[in-house]
Amino acid sequence: MSINRFPVGLAMDVSYPNFQVSLTLLSVSQLKFEIKEGPFARTEIVDIQVIPLGNSMFAVSWQEKEGATVTNIQDYDSAVVHSFATLPDGQFMRMTGPFTVTRPADEVFDDRPKRNKALVLEAMTTLFQRHDATAVERLYARDYIQHNPDIPQGRDALQQLVVNLPKDVHYEPGLIVAQDDLVAIHGRIRGWAEVPQIVVDIFRIENGKLAEHWDVLQNEAPVNAAKHSISMFDPKEHRL
Questions:
Q1: CATH number, domain 11-103
Q2: Where are the domains of the chain?
Q3: Strands of 170-179's sheet, edge to edge?
Q4: Domain 112-239: which topology?
Q5: 118: Cβ–Cβ under 8 A, 6 or more apart, which residues?
Q6: CA 172 to CA 198: how far, in whole Å?
């Protein structure tokens, strides 16, 4: 697979407001579409051009044998297709529809975990290392959901919390794992309580922003040599 991981082999059913179309991504240069019912009913294999737009989105364009031209914006994060078509009679159509995958791609690739981990790492270090409250609006959803009972709901409340942080609050990121739209990060924060605390923060990401948060905190305990214990936190653990 090339063209920045265009999902060759994938088949999908796209439900537009007035009709449904089945798309099969045969290669980075060909696509098969099938419309089973209605005035546009037909099946055709067309030559396509694919342009990656980033964040699992692709612009896919083609011209049909009867002269219609189509450009699709295929958004695999949101599972929708935005379609713009000019018909042979000059009629212009704009349509958006969700899609259902009916056959997976030949090679499965999802870069959301990598992007989401970078987003969470940026948020934690920007807010709790550099104390930059201006980043909250850029990184967090407007209706941000907070599951910590000591912090009020919403993005504005989080921004005010960062504004009022004591100067000695400092966060150290450690191990970070991600799957689909969820990220968990293990870290240590100083200055939040009387002693350093080890914290696991879990985030849900929606539309490229942090939308929901859970956390669990525990006071850091020293290594117990008698029990051959190891430290609760190591900044180098992120290399795992």
A1: 2.40.128.20
A2: 11-103, 112-239
A3: 140-146, 209-219, 197-206, 182-190, 170-179
A4: Nuclear Transport Factor 2; Chain: A, (3.10.450)
A5: none
A6: 10
| Per-residue pLDDT in tens (0 to 9) along the chain, 240 residues | 446 689 999 999 999 999 999 999 999 999 999 998 888 899 999 999 999 998 889 999 999 999 999 999 999 988 999 999 999 999 999 999 999 999 999 877 777 888 899 999 999 999 999 999 999 999 999 999 999 888 889 999 999 999 999 999 999 999 999 988 999 999 999 988 889 999 999 999 998 899 999 999 998 887 766 666 678 888 788 776
What does the DSSP assignment read for 168-222?
Answer: T-EEEEEEEEEETTEEEEEEEEESSSSS-EEEEEEEEEETTEEEEEEEEEEE---
Tell me whether strands 209-219 and 140-146 are parallel, antiparallel or unpaired: parallel
Task: Output the pTM of the full model.
Answer: 0.65
What does the block give as tokens for 21? 């179309």
Structure tokens at 53: 């737009």
